[in-house]
């Protein structure tokens, strides 16, 4: 990053203190809105993994309901692309066979080369879409397992990130230097 840009960024954005959580004022004793905090339910990563063999079931187990439509939308979109590319691949494959039967010895014509290229392109796209579906399935399994592992992850209330611009003078280069310091407190 150029020196001038760093200096301008440090001058425009004064040091800020960023808190990970907001502080909540304690409720007075006997407040009717006060509730007893339930201990966090422990989720089994193994159970989440096994349930996620059916896509979305692990996310349902982990109470991450919003991820289920995303998973099925990815499968539906990739499934459509697989069907579309396979249909076009079959068309060009049959066209190539028909051309070879009806026009022997003309495999170097421009039309035949176009048909071959199109057939290979659709085959390649179909195969990549199938790999994409496998990747979505594996990510579904990984996501459910990691969510179950981190379900009871507790972030301390005093977690904060502070950044400050820092200006120093370098005696070696005889130039001022600007930098940003990040301080993580937990």
Characterization of the model:
By secondary structure, this protein is of the alpha+beta class. The protein folds into two domains: about 1-20 and about 155-185, no CATH class; about 55-155. About 55% of the residues lie in helices and about 15% in strands. It has five helices and three strands; from the N terminus they run H-E-H-H-H-H-E-E. It has helices at about 5-10, 45-50, 55-60, 65-100, 110-150; strands at about 15-20, 160-170, 175-185. A three-stranded antiparallel β-sheet has the order 1-2-3, covered by helices on one side. The longest helix has about 40 residues, at about 110-150. The radius of gyration is 30 Å and the shape is flat. The two termini are about 30 Å apart. Residues about 15-20 have low confidence and may be disordered.
Detail the poorly predicted runs. Answer: 16-21
> Using DSSP, what is the number of strands?
3
Instruction: State the oligomer.
Output: single chain
Structural class: alpha+beta
Number of domains: 2
> Would you list the SSEs in sequence order as H and E?
HEHHHHEE
Average pLDDT across residues?
Answer: 81
Shape: flat
How much of the sequence lies in strands comes to 5-15%
> Number of helix segments?
5
End-to-end distance, in Å? 29 Å
Major sheet: arrangement of strands = 1-2-3
Query: Radius of gyration over alpha carbons?
Result: 30 Å
